[in-house]
TrEMBL record:
This is Phosphomannomutase. Keywords: Isomerase, Magnesium, Metal-binding, Phosphoprotein. Residues 8-130, 153-250, 259-365 form the Alpha-D-phosphohexomutase alpha/beta/alpha domain. Its cofactor is Mg(2+). One of its GO terms (molecular function) is phosphomannomutase activity. It holds the Pfam family PGM_PMM_IV. It comes from the Bacteria. It is an enzyme of class 5 (isomerase). Its EC number is 5.4.2.8. CDD domains: PMM_PGM.
Amino acid sequence: MRDLSGIVKAYDIRGVVGEQLDADAVRDIGAAFTRLVGGPAVVVGHDMRESSPGLAEAFAEGVTGQGIDVVEIGLASTDMLYFASGKLELPGAMFTASHNPAEYNGIKLCRSGAAPVGQDSGLSEIQELVAHGVPEFLGAKGSVTSRDMVAEYSLFLRELVDLRGIRPLKVVVDAGNGMGGHTVPTVFEGLPVEVVPMYFELDGTFPNHEANPLDPANLVDLQAKVREVGADAGLAFDGDADRCFVVDERAEPVAPSAITALVAVRELAKEPGGTIIHNLITSKAVPEIVAEHGGEPMRTRVGHSFIKQTMAETGAIFGGEHSAHYYFRDFWRADSGMLAALHVLAALGGQQRPLSELMAEYTRYAASGEINSTVDDQQERMRRVAEVFGDRNGARADELDGLTVELADGSWFNLRPSNTEPLLRLNVEARDTDAMAALRDEVLAVVRG
């Protein structure tokens, strides 16, 4: 009996290689996944981590052992795996631990058409099947074929966002020794964009810095290079290159909410009146700008499975999260940092202002960013916060995802518990920095008091 409870997360499977995740476990997961999704084949890709090729091979053995074929696409970004799943109309498995340290690895799974497989949409069934033993398949084994899809992936993205007519741009790209170093050269080949590469060497030990651009410490090198070469913009990808962070020509970070608003406006220009999804932690500017441009904003919980489900239900054309995940209906509702980056460069290169001035149109409020507090009694602390703020004149509260409180002056905060750690995560937004800081400190005093 194999227990996967320590590595099955809300949206994927992830653990320390050799301790929690090994070839035997992955082989069983491959067999169980095949039982869940059926044939005729499963597409499998992997990142640059040392353990990834071997784990991908073990997974393929589990799949073929159930009589189903495997299409092996080799080195891939996660959004390239989603592309392959959509293009080939096959379920898929991507071996990556994204931005986690080198000792980790994991599996992101999807059904045909890049439909997500999360804890509530298949992972629990896989966990249970593995725990009880996957039934042996007595028929003929499936086969493994290889297919390189980098060129097809790049062409598809460039057809969605045309950069051929933009003014020449100089862009620094920090791949963090992750999969952006594999995909960026092909995606940008022949475009009027001079790419200044940083850390394009594929190296799962991450010798330069963690491939986690959400941590400001990992943007320092990119910011310095943007200033040094006088670039128009900087792009930073995480380890599996499904997220992209942007800095402007001054090397100042651009908020993912502002990117969400910009891309939303571009998509609404193509399809007026369309629905745009935003999670409840994105800036209030996002739904305001969407509505001003004739779109229909829709608020959801945090997390890609909720975003993708809501997009499927509503036919939404685009969705964005505060964490720099961007979802496109025309990309099988999957998230692609590369596609978002192309939109930013197309918008920048289609006019003459610098990126800082362009993005000022989409930045209206002061935000705290996510602030974590370690607490033993998450629900009790949240109850105290709700008590303190519930009686404020004009305050409105909801519990769509944690506790969100909007005050009469338009400022708001969201406080939600981590699913995996004893943490409360706080996000605050207000009209200016002083008002944001005051509200932030007041909430934290209750949370940490």
